[in-house]
Amino acid sequence: MMRLQPVLLASLLVACGQSEKQSSEADAQCKADINCIGQVLTTSAEVGLMCGDAVERLSKNDVKWNAQLLQQRFSRATWTNGNKSSVTLIGDQAQFQNDFGANVHMVYQCDVDPAGATVLAVRAVPGQL
Fold this sequence. Notes:
Blueprint: E1 2-3, H1 9-15, H2 20-32, H3 34-42, H4 45-56, E2 63-65, E3 76-79, E4 87-97, E5 103-113, E6 118-126
Antiparallel strand pairs: 1-6, 2-4, 3-4, 4-5, 5-6
């Protein structure tokens, strides 16, 4: 399990002129909405790097990322479980090299606990979104 620095949406809202009470309410609303928390997590460079490193460790050979330097590695987000305590980030910007040296497009997923900002699990299967 990897540990990430917490995503502090509340501090961003306070910096934008909202009170701490308003920002904590907005933070709670964001954590309950998959579109909002998904946007926060998929655009976080730190989450992208930590999940990206975990995805790379799944390959026994080289990994080639199709995403450019500032492009997001994860394009979708969904709840991992029914109680909405973790988020699964999904992407298809990587190719794993197989044993014959050919690159295979992969769809990969990274489960993240947004409360503790922890990478819970990663998985990848051949294919594209």
